[in-house]
Amino acid sequence: xxxxxxxxxxxxxxxxxxxxxxxxxxxYALDPVIAYWLIAAFSLLYGEAASHKWRSLPHFRAVLAxxxxxxxxxxxxxxxxxxxxxxxxAIGLWFPSIRRAATQxxxxxxxxxxxxxxxxxxxxRRDLDCGCSGPLDRRPIASWMVVRNVLLAAVLGLSQGxxxxxxxxxxxxxxxxxxLLVTALIYRAADQLxxxxxxxxxxxxxxx
Length: 208
Description:
The protein has 208 residues and is an all-alpha fold. It has a domain at 29-161. It has helices at 6-15, 32-55, 57-67, 75-92, 99-122, 143-158, 170-207.
């Protein structure tokens, strides 16, 4: 008869993970506040981008033509199509049945914008208007815009992950509202810093 090895049994018991410590899919699920923050932030981003284009389609058509990334005969069709896609993403993110498709469309648009900017930077066309803000706010393309769009695409992709199944409470609405306000302020400040302040500082430094 083989004797029972108590030392081995104790070691096995100590090294075996406790059931509560085992990983579960819920550990990687998004909290509803974070998930809705992503949806609201990107819905506002795409809604604003689409509104700039709809308000001045001729200007956007001219900008798109200057990018020189597609045959000229496709420009009249692509101009309203891009604006419509951005509008669809802004709305579709709110509906669970089409959220995945809207997210994938949004990620694709961001990556295509990044590729178009990178291509024209490689061509040396650094004076090209990015078309980000409409005819009254001309902004030359820059490498930071490529990085921004890739990072935004990665963050938007996170919203496709599973959500935690917990009730959305009133305090969550306050947290979400405050988070959106802070996000908007930080995004605007960073955008102005990179698009206006730093280029102006470089020009002044070059003159001195």
